[in-house]
Amino acid sequence: MRVLFLLAVAAWAQKPDPYGYVIRVPKLERAVTVDGHLAEWKDYAFSDGVWDIARLRHSPWYDPVINRLTVHGDEPGAEEDLAARYYIAWDERFLYLGADVKDNANDVTDPAHEPKRWYYKDAICWFIEAPQLRTAKKFGEGDNAFCFVIDTSKPAYGAWWRHGARGKTYLEEPLPKDAVQYAIRRGARGDFVLEARVAMAPTLGVSSPDWHAPRVGDTYSLEIVHTDPDGGDYGGHFLIYGRGDDDSTWGRMELTGPQTPIERKPK
Ligand SMILES: [Ca+2]
Ligand SMILES: [Ca+2]
Ligand SMILES: [Ca+2]
User: Fold this and answer.
1) For residue range 58-68, what is the model confidence (pLDDT) as tens digits?
2) Domain with 68 in it: what CATH number?
3) pTM of the full structure
4) Which of 8, 41, 68, 130 has its CA 20 to 30 A from that of 88?
């Protein structure tokens, strides 16, 4: 009985990886220029390839109610609606976030606009719990969302920070100006590249007193939320590595040492 109890405590003591899909995020040892071009660092960052609705349908966290795309008229197939590669890396001070996106329409007009309503606009949001805590929470202590609205005019709400803190949930505010740098480079139709750098101490460090400067082996939790209204109301919505605001559904993210790029063999 006592052994069973101890086993139960051990299982509780570490929030399990909900999908057995560990995201190993490499440390970057290269200088990044935040200019909307990812070439200098993307091969040294975590990326697991292209995400579209067909791939999402076969992921363990897929739920058709929350992972969906919408049609607003004469539109091409679902694979043209939204597809993206996401990149993430870290160093002593910063998280580096990138996305290379194919989207059929850019839409950042929200008839009921509020600064915190990034999710009614084209936006990409990295949900990060740091450090990974034992208990399930919805934007409580240690939970952060770094959200970027794909609006090249870069309004005050364009880089948003939803987060928790000790005893507080769902704090909503712009990312502090000196904590973030980001660039959006628009392509044809709604295509774009997003490149961002977020300082960890003034964000993750504010959200959790247990956060410390990052080290290889630290464990965080991660979900990517990519919203795509394309002229509709709430519209399309990709959730990657998670199932919503409950951080016990977010994937396990480990900080690792540097990664070497994939080498192609000479012919
Ligand atoms: Ca760059
Ligand atoms: Ca779209
Ligand atoms: Ca869009």
Assistant:
1) 999 999 888 88
2) 2.60.40.1190
3) 0.93
4) 68
Q: Could you tell me how many residues make up the chain?
A: 267
Q: Which structural domain range is residue 26 located in? A: 15-256
Angstrom distances, CA of residue 6 to CA of 2, 14, 26, 192, 248: 6, 13, 34, 51, 21
| 177 CA distance to ligand 2 middle (Å) | 29
The per-residue pLDDT for 10 is 45
* Centroid of ligand 2 to alpha carbon of 46 (angstroms): 24
Most distant pair of Cα atoms in the chain: their distance: 64
Tens digits of per-residue pLDDT, 124-159? 999 999 999 989 999 999 999 999 999 999 999 999
At 5 the pLDDT is: 53
CB atoms within 10 A of CB 73: 6
Domains in the chain, number: 1
Say how many Å lie between the CA of residue 3 and the centre of ligand 2: 53
208 vs 14: CA distance, rounded Å: 17
d(CA 101, ligand 2 centre) in Å: 10
